[in-house]
Design brief:
This protein is of the alpha/beta class. Helix content is 30%, strand content 13%. The chain has a 4-stranded mixed beta sheet with strand order 3-7-4-8. Strands 1-2 form a two-stranded parallel ribbon. α2 crosses α4 (140-153). The longest helix is centred in the C-terminal third of the chain and has 14 residues, at 140-153.
């Protein structure tokens, strides 16, 4: 009952997925996303006003609104098995609006405690919150808030404080930090033995695709 899409972040890209595959290609023109306010979510590291994140958020908050819960997973996240995905999805998605590896608060507007906080003034009133979103689960309610933000502002805020701040500002939404996402980190060198010892965890960063296969 899970639909899987790969988003190709190129207006003219062709991605070789076999016709019989259960994985489908998602292709979104930058102009469509940008003219609807889906821009500026992830310029850090991409230098693009409209990144893959903007396109994905546009698609799932405005177009594919039939999904009650959506997982956004970057390519260098390793999920060891189908069961490791389903266990997390079934345990947390029915009850929470944001499933995330991190939740850090900024209640006083300190711009020096994190590299990206200088992007926050003017985007949100205090308090702010942030966390990594390499693998993050979002409810339909949260995606609707993202859509409203894009419509109101004509652009998005940086994604690593966009989701978390929207949730803490809405008393009806709930956030959870599962143990299984504790291995979603900024920088780490994981050994194969570590992954075998915790088969239900998701892992980031794991940029060596041959290690994924192993």
């Amino acid at each position: 009952d899970i639909d899987v899409f790969v988003l190709a972040d190129d207006d003219d890209a062709s991605f070789p997925i076999p016709a019989s595959s259960n994985v489908r290609l998602l292709h979104i023109q930058e102009a469509f996303a940008m003219e609807n306010g889906f821009r500026e979510a992830n310029m850090f590291g991409t230098n693009k006003s409209c990144s893959a994140w903007d396109k994905a958020l546009y698609h799932y908050s405005r177009i594919a609104t039939n999904y009650s819960f959506v997982w956004f997973i970057e390519y260098d996240v390793f999920i060891p098995s189908v069961q490791a995905f389903l266990a997390l999805h079934e345990l947390y998605s029915p009850w929470h609006d944001l499933v995330t590896a991190e939740l850090k608060y900024n209640t006083n507007g300190n711009l020096h405690s994190w590299y990206h906080w200088p992007k926050a003034p003017g985007k949100f009133i205090l308090p702010w919150a942030e966390g990594m979103v390499c693998a993050v689960g979002c409810s339909r309610q949260l995606l609707s808030r993202v859509s409203d933000y894009a419509r109101w502002r004509g652009e998005l805020a940086f994604l690593e404080f966009l989701f978390h701040t929207l949730v803490i500002h809405d008393k009806q939404m709930k956030i959870v930090r599962p143990f299984e996402l504790s291995t979603i980190t900024y920088r780490e060198l994981y050994r194969f033995e570590q992954i075998k010892a915790r088969p239900n965890n998701w892992w980031h960063p794991l940029k060596r695709m041959n290690l994924h296969d192993e």
